[in-house]
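hiii so um. not sure if this is the right channel but i have a protein structure encoded as tokens and i wanna go backwards to a sequence. like what aa goes where. can anyone help
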């Protein structure tokens, strides 16, 4: 009930174009609330480069310990998934939608020196900070729509952590085709999406459409921003990736009263 009340409030703000403004106000409140903890982190970890606060908030949350240390664990978690399906020697890996390098900055520490790591994002401020502050990763700017600045068959592994979750339906098809274009044959595409666990956040109408296999999108805000939301029924994703091999689909559960995203691992067939 509480989640659906939040949905109704969010939809009201979205309808009147107030969601971005409300989210910016939320950022300022959290910025003040976390000042002490963020100052402690910087004092205790002077050698760790930390992006501007809003870049972290926009792509994740405003907790520096989570941004750096928990994300280092996430990098290892990702690599464990990759290792089950791919030999991580002499591979090219792309973080599609890397934001302020939360995960990708850690990958070179855990990979063989023969591997090359790339990150791309549509936010020029994030890419500028990444290029200046993060070593061992090749960063590129992209736009809200394809193409990416890479030639065909460039990557062995591409991952997108909660990227399709902020795109409208037409861009799902355009972007998946683009990821396939730059993937090698038998390359891996790893995605996290808002799946069945997110039904608890849907209105009754959205739930009926979700159960029909329709993508649920909540727009009227900036495409790609944290306030744009897409919820993915399995049938929609299966149609999106049709023609390629689904290796794994791991459904998200509810943890600490929060729905977790699904994992989809796809092998590209060319």
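sure thing!! here u go:
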């Amino acid at each position: 009930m509480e989640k659906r009340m939040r949905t109704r409030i969010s939809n009201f703000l979205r309808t009147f174009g107030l969601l971005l403004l409300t989210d910016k106000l939320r950022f300022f409140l959290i910025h003040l609330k976390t000042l002490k903890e963020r100052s402690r982190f910087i004092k205790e970890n002077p050698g760790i480069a930390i992006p501007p606060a809003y870049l972290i908030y926009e792509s994740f949350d405003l907790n520096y310990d989570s941004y750096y240390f928990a994300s280092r664990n996430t990098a290892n978690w990702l690599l464990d998934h990759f290792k089950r399906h791919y030999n991580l020697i002499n591979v090219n890996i792309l973080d599609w939608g890397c934001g302020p390098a939360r995960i990708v900055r850690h990958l070179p520490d855990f990979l063989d020196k023969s591997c090359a790591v790339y990150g791309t994002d549509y936010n020029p401020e994030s890419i500028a900070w990444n290029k200046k502050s993060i070593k061992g990763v090749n960063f590129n700017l992209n736009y809200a729509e394809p193409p990416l600045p890479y030639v065909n068959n460039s990557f062995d592994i591409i991952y997108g952590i909660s990227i399709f979750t902020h795109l409208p339906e037409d861009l799902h098809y355009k972007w998946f085709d683009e990821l396939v274009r730059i993937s090698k044959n038998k390359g891996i595409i790893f995605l996290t999406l808002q799946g069945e666990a997110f039904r608890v956040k849907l209105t009754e109408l959205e739930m009926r459409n979700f159960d029909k296999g329709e993508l649920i999108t909540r727009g009227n805000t900036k495409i790609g921003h944290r306030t744009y939301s897409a919820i993915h029924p399995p049938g929609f994703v299966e149609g999106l990736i049709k023609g390629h091999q689904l290796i794994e689909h791991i459904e998200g559960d509810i943890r600490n009263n929060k729905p977790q995203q699904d994992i989809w691992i796809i092998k590209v067939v060319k």
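oh and The longest strand covers residues 183-193.
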